Amino acid sequence: MNAEKEALKIVNNTLSSIETVMKDWKAADKKTKNKFTERIERLEKWHATLMQWKKEFLAAKSDQRYKLLLQLHEIGKMT
Questions:
Q1: What pTM does this model have?
Q2: Which among 28, 53, 63, 77 could bridge 32 via Cys, Cβ 3.0 to 4.6 Å?
Q3: pLDDT digit string (tens) for 15-56?
Q4: CB atoms within 10 A of CB 62
Q5: Domain span holding position 41
Q6: Beta-carbon-side half-sphere exposure of residue 54 (alpha carbons within 13 Å)
Q7: Using CA atoms, how far apart are residues 54 and 52, in angstroms rounded to an integer?
Q8: How many distinct structural domains can be found in the chain?
């Protein structure tokens, strides 16, 4: 159970950080936006993947959550 809570804490913190970066990027000037567009697109994809993982994790029964915790490790490699 502690691993589950820790995983959700990490996911929530990561989602928050990604959202902050995306918000700052949207407020940036055009030159900055053009320079970082590819990275932002990757962040948006990662954000969507984490949101989907979180949704599945919260809906999963306890016996399914272990598999999702292992999957989270693979998602972390996306960065």
A1: 0.81
A2: 28
A3: 999 999 999 988 989 888 888 888 899 999 999 999 999 999
A4: 8
A5: 2-76
A6: 17
A7: 5
A8: 1
| Displacement of CA 1 from its chain's centroid (Å) | 21
CA–CA gap between residue 40 and residue 12 (Å, rounded): 18
Provide the terminal-to-terminal Cα distance of the chain, rounded to the nearest Å: 26
What single-letter amino acid sits at 31?
K
Identity of the amino acid at 23: K
- CB burial of 12-21 (b: ≥16 within 10 Å; e: otherwise) equals eebeeebeee
Is residue 51 helix, strand or coil? helix
- Tell me how far apart the alpha carbons of residues 69 and 71 are, in angstroms, rounded to a whole number: 5
Contacts of 42 (CB under 8 A, 6+ apart): 78
